# Entry
Amino acid sequence: MRRFAFVGVPALLFASGGAAMTDPPAAPPVRYKFVENTDRWVRVIRGKWEFTGKLDKNGEFTQEFRAPAGGPATMMPPADLLAGPGQLGAAAKAYEIRFGTLIPGTLRKDGLFVPEVGGKVIKFADYKYSPEGPQIWNLPGWFVPDDPPAAKK
# Structure
């Protein structure tokens, strides 16, 4: 004769994944805010030349220095590489910012941005940043996590 053990309702619900066990509350999605920085030095490599300069608030690059690509950069300030050969493993979907609008396209392996023919241009204010989503290759700043406002007591 077989014996049956009474395991009780909580154990049965646990074993069946029932409602007695509550899932931890999902973390709220991370929200990001844009922090403009038009003082940082950036680099762009085009062919045999490396250009160092700054971006204005509209994403326009102003060249300050020029040197042979791959050569010694002794007279140039340290700079973030925006676009250049070998920067990407493969072409990637991206946006280019121009005067408050974002133009969709592809950032090629060689560092050139190619606009998408017939692509939907959106306002920068409507862009929802995500680390996994298309990036803005000539962004004059960066996105940082936006701390949610403190809960009122």
About this structure: Residues 36-145 form one domain. The radius of gyration is 25 Å. The CA atoms of residues 41 and 77 lie 7 Å apart. Confidence is low (pLDDT under 50) at residues 1-16.
